[in-house]
Amino acid sequence: MRLTRYFLPVLKENPAEAQIVSHRFMLRAGMIKQQAAGIYSWLPLGYRVLRRIEEIVHEEQQRAGHIPLLMPTLQPADLWRESGRYDDYGQEMLRIRDRHERDMLYGPTNEEMITDIFRSHVSSYRDLPLTLYHIQWKFRDEIRPRFGVMRGREFYMKDGYNFDIDKEAALHAYNRHMVSYLRTYERMGLTAIPMRADSGPIGGDDTHEFLVLAATGESEVFYDDAVTGLRLGDRRIDYDDRDQVAAVCREFTSLYARTDETHDEAAFAAVPEDRRKVGRGIEVGQIFYFGTKYSEPMGATVVTAEGNRVPVHMGSHGIGVSRLLGAIIEASHDDRGIIWPEGVTPFQAGIVNLRQGDGACDVACDAMLAALEAKGLTALYDDRDERAGAKFATMDLIGLPWRVTVGPRGLANGKVELTSRRSGESEEMTPEAAVDRLAQIYAGR
Ligand code: ATP
Ligand code: MG
Description:
- It is built from 14 helices and 23 strands.
- It is α+β, with helices and mostly antiparallel strands.
- The protein folds into two domains: 3-338, BirA Bifunctional Protein, domain 2; 349-442, Rossmann fold (3-Layer(aba) Sandwich), CATH 3.40.50.800.
- Strands 3, 7, 8, 9, 10, 11, 12, 13 and 16 form a nine-stranded mixed beta sheet that branches.
- Residues 109, 140, 142, 151-152, 155, 157, 283-286, 318, 320, 322-323 line the site of adenosine-5'-triphosphate (ATP).
């Protein structure tokens, strides 16, 4: 993509309304535009990252055996009257009346609707286990929307729902979600720590939140520092293997890690003093097991092998897809701008032409762009008639992890420069070698 043909409305000044670094950089890099409090347009660069995050979430959910579908944003109030939540939900719910005076709402979550889908089509234990999920816009009329996409009113969420024959099977679904979430966040370059949490209005016994440590996080967290070193890495997971999946969950939840809601001073005191940490975290996901809380009142039952009709055991599991952009930036930036992890970057490389209009430089940049695209890599070529300093500043702000710099002096020796945004280190090499190196870096991502 040529920058002169793209739409990248970067801001020179720091926007006054942005209180945290991710919000500031998202506005400055032309990723989002606020349309109303907590409601944003996703401009092309932001939209590319959102799509990339969404893709990773889809891949990891389907790897775990979960099935995508799509439910609407608008829901009839009657479903929520069945569960009793229409009155309980309060002012966070955006209530709408249609022309026939029917009560509707913009969904803040989808437990009722998915339970309705289930009860309409499933009636036998043979159809279980079943986990359905979607990635859809939600609306919660938050009292204090702030920090850009971190706490929006309209936001994009993956929410998944498991249906199982009994508690044991449902807890396997819970564990499967935990492991698939760990892998999802790792692919985005994040360390998200599962912490025992409080169940709140969804209700239920077992729940973990996933927190990314960041000074600007809204939750206070207490943890054993050793938990920050745990990695799933590329170990193979058989998601049908209950013991293996449970063992991974034990590994990631045995060390002390809790939010202020469930913090237990006595248990925390047992952590060796030099590993006892108090900090702040951003909630990027949550998983719940809540048994028959919705299936019972809404009549979502199946007939067992023995011929008994029983309510199914359920859980719901969410990932804050749009919030993740903010969380990733909070975790990965410097003074000059964003540093995208390779897994989510909007373009895999940037190309900077140091002397636009110089015949050899222009030809080499065009060839570089074509060669990268031929290898299936995406690149943003800054072909503006600008000073080198301004081009570097833009690249640093938008945070592409790799930059290829093409200038007359290097080209005279047949070389370009490949620079890592994260380390700042540069290496001279031939254009072909730069393409090969980038292809290697991104292999399998
Ligand atoms: P919070 O405690 O931050 O208000 P929640 O616990 O109410 O969030 P869940 O119902 O668990 O949210 O939703 C799943 C995920 O959706 C959260 O972990 C979070 O990442 C994301 N999320 C929730 N509310 C918002 C919001 N207002 N803006 C952006 N993302 C959100
Ligand atoms: Mg939550």
